[in-house]
Amino acid sequence: MPMNESLLTSIEATIKALMATGNPLVPGLRNQFPDITFVRCSASDMDATPYRISNRYQHYLMNRSDVCIKLTDQLESADGVIVAEVE
């Protein structure tokens, strides 16, 4: 699934809905967006500029086209999202 701004907005809305209902975040995201890879961590674990910032989360784009996951700021090459919780 190609990443775009509309998809990121849908992901953010899903995060808000999951938080409101108390459902687990990553399993809920994976269920809703099965073609996207999701990783959750603490914002303090990240040493990069987030692609987007919301109330409780910073969103980083990742690319898994090589053997290792790489952060990217290129929406068109992203195939996953790191959801970093601001504590």
Task: Lay out the secondary structure.
Elements: H1 5-21, H2 25-32, E1 37-42, E2 52-53, E3 57-63, E4 70-72, E5 80-85
Parallel strand pairs: 1-5
Antiparallel strand pairs: 2-3, 3-4, 3-5
Mind explaining what this structure looks like?
With 87 residues, this protein is an alpha+beta fold. It has one domain. Helix content is 29%, strand content 28%. The longest helix is centred in the first third of the chain and has 17 residues.
Q: Tally of extended strands?
A: 5
SSE succession: HHEEEEE
Query: How many distinct folded domains?
Result: 1
* Biggest sheet layout: 5 strands, mixed
Helix content: 25-40%
Low-confidence stretches: none
In short:
By secondary structure, the chain is of the alpha+beta class. The protein has two helices and five strands; from the N terminus they run H-H-E-E-E-E-E.
Features:
five-stranded mixed beta sheet; alpha+beta; 2 helices; 28% strand
